[in-house]
Amino acid sequence: MSASDPALDRPASGRPAPDRPDADAGSVSRAARLADRAVAWYQVRVSPRTRTSCAHRVAHGGESCSQAVRRTLRSSGLLGSAVPTLARFAACYRAVRLLTPHQRVRGVCCCGGIPIPFGFGRR
Fold this sequence. Notes:
- With about 120 residues, this protein is an alpha+beta fold.
- About 50% of the residues lie in helices and about 15% in strands.
- Strand 1 and strand 2 (about 115-120) form a beta hairpin.
- The chain is globular, with a radius of gyration of 16 Å.
């Protein structure tokens, strides 16, 4: 194998490395790539400034919601990732309720740079 062999960029599973932005660039639509870039921008520019962590990752371990959305965008495209993304956000909502059962939680969730205000919990 040469240094430019694409197999070197793949983990043992044979799938492209998830941290490589253009890993699946040829297999998904331009819209999916743009959405992936928007989530990547959120991860770099917005998320570090919120000083919070993904509730799903805190409660269950594994990847954050934004990492999961990027993985799904790369593997299923924009339309194919819609339902899994909504399911993941619902699971994250349940994780927040699990972690903060007696508190009122308010904030903003940014999905691809779109701020979505939320509030739940006891009043």
